């Protein structure tokens, strides 16, 4: 098994010298190391293990006595030979009796052999009996030699008991005379087969034990696990099915592992600690990234040493003349093996994932715009119109005119609105209506201005219409008053642009990003994707709308990370501007922030988390618009690193526990001047649009329709109780024709007309009295 899987190994043994390792086939290289017998000093043992470590050999075979096996493994752990990269085979059959609690969390592949099946019923029964006799608990610390002697004595006793013809007698070992029944007992034992503590005890004709099985043990975090077995005829038999290897839960433990962690002195991910004392080592640094590495170390047990990347560069690929692709910056240091991990504001991109591995994102973010806070706007002469949008003002004017005209029409149709202008005359010749068109306009405007008028509706329908108009004016006036107070008290700001679209369209404010950073690469790569998708859309279907639309969205799926990138014409235009003006590209984020802080004509594109950090400390800066994309920061490591999944799971656990949010609050809002900029009160009051007050217009419309139906009902009621019966249609047409003639506010009294023409049918119904027919008004009644 060893020769088929290991190409090289190192054997460490005790006691006598050996000339060659048994069981190794030709072609397998091996090294021999000898540990001195006790009481050799422990220092010498560690010295030998240090030599093994320097030889970079990772496969070791340990052949030592049970009494010193634990000390040997402990010395190997102290030197650093216990870890996920090392493989051990322990030849001692007493491995199961050693306390391996100290080593099972290191992830080391420790394999051993066991002759005793500690789960067999016979073993449990015998150990229970022995513990009862000793009055102490049963343990697995019994040496294999003792159990072999127990089985031998048991088998001998069984033979003597069954051979009852034999009488035992004492034997003097100093005398060469043998026991005459000895051969009989030996032959009986050779033919016997007994279940013992060490398994089935059986011998061949030559007296060697046969048909025994050795369990192959593997050390896991739950203790020793039976991985398979070995027998003389069957050889190695791995009992665990092959697919189960992928189903085993990985041990989230990196004890005895030491990582070189690369950081950049970029706020707030890595910073020099402020102290009046001289600090050394990891104590010199603090920040979000430093705390995150510490939390991961507490969870998985690894050790770490921080090293600073002087140029603060995350890394960019460089193609050499021979076509080789290499990286610089922090990613280049990790790929070159000079560091194991790198943590800073390193964005996970598809290009970087081609050559390096990342953990799960520990922070989500996107590209946004950093700019100075806008200046206060000068007072406006017509600011009193600001509470409502122009659309709402237009609808209000339409509602005012519509309700006034409807009130005029309904008042003409309803008979109750036609009143006697001469109180002294019981049946006047003409009736008068108070709601002329001008009076209707005056009534509605008086209600709108909360002033009222001397006019009062009489009919049910006109009162209904007036009530719903009063409700409308109540809501609109209250909304106007409240929003006007906000506009007059809140300082309005002059915003040069409100999002990336307006930024790209204007030509006053310059904009740029960090040179060679992931933000600049986003704008550089997006136009290429845009052109590819246009061609793809053209070939798929000519009937589909062309990708020359102003904005469209695509989804890119990476095998490791999913990104959503919005590609637009704007990105191409903005990249062309930045390429044509190299002075807008900054060497670092700090330089870009300083330029924004000192100039009114520059905006800086950077990650939203960095913008949030700066706006917590520079109160004259703020973020403009929403995020342009979605991405994340991750910890960089070499591809196919064995600890990638362990660290990723630990990051997810920290996120689920809310620890990442706590760290962000600590370093963004509390430490190093965080929280000095209080959140500004709302500096902008939005005018109320139709979406805000549209409901009250709907209520007004419903009330008007209901008032019309009430007017028809009143007209029908008047016809029903009239002596001269006419159809509803004729009466309605008559009223409409009368309204269209615009005869002012007076019309003839039908009752007076009917009394004069009683018994006569010659008078036309449509005759209207002239002014000479009407009596003159008198201020008093006689």
Automatic annotation (TrEMBL):
Subcellular location per the Swiss-Prot or TrEMBL entry: Postsynaptic cell membrane
Recorded topology in the membrane: Multi-pass membrane protein
GO cellular component assignments: postsynaptic membrane
Gene Ontology MF term list: ligand-gated monoatomic ion channel activity
One Pfam family recorded for the sequence: Lig_chan-Glu_bd
Transmembrane segments: 392-411, 468-490, 693-717
Sorted UniProt keywords: Cell membrane, Glycoprotein, Ion channel, Ion transport, Ligand-gated ion channel, Membrane, Postsynaptic cell membrane, Receptor, Synapse, Transmembrane, Transmembrane helix, Transport
Regions of compositional bias (Polar residues) in chain numbering: 757-782
Domain Ionotropic glutamate receptor C-terminal, chain residue ranges per copy: 258-670
Domain of life: Eukaryota
Disordered: region residues: 750-782
Domain Ionotropic glutamate receptor L-glutamate and glycine-binding residues, every copy: 268-336
Assigned protein family: Belongs to the glutamate-gated ion channel (TC 1.A.10.1) family.
Protein name per Swiss-Prot or TrEMBL: Ionotropic glutamate receptor C-terminal domain-containing protein
